[in-house]
Amino acid sequence: MAIAVCPGSFDPVTLGHADVVTRAAALFDEVVVAVAINPAKKGLFSVDERRDLLATALDGLDNVRTDAFEGLVVDYCRSIGAATMVKGLRSATDLGFEEPMAQMNRHLTGVDSVFLITDPAHSFVSSSLVKEVARGGGDISAFLHPEVHRRLLERLG
């Protein structure tokens, strides 16, 4: 069984994230969307809330589940028997950032990285930008699942 991990903070999950996970689900037997736990970072949503929002945004993908991890993502991959990490790339800048990490991960553990080019409709969207625009009163509904949108606006007050 081919297992892949899609790691990230997902604070909150966007339609761009959902697109990458959906496409990964068509390529692998099982996809684990793993929320990174970083005690040094204060997220808008708790890890459990992010997993809940992911489950909502990814509903209907039978071979996808969510989890959370601390530490190196490659150690997490090995712990669940995943030989592959899947990442979405929005631009050449993302590739420049991800490539050395992918090489180091493969060197350390043999875990390979697969990069999926983001759908152009989502190429400029990030969780940080969505939160910033929402805080300023902008309409971010086109970038989020309706329930994620509702919960984000509720959280921001």
Automatic annotation (TrEMBL):
Belongs to the bacterial CoaD family. Homohexamer. This is Phosphopantetheine adenylyltransferase. It catalyses: (R)-4'-phosphopantetheine + ATP + H(+) = 3'-dephospho-CoA + diphosphate. The keyword Acetylation does not apply. Substrate binds at residues 9, 41, 73, 87. SUPFAM superfamilies: Nucleotidylyl transferase (SSF52374). Its cofactor is Mg(2+). Its EC number is 2.7.7.3. ATP binds at residues 9-10, 17, 88-90, 98, 122-128.
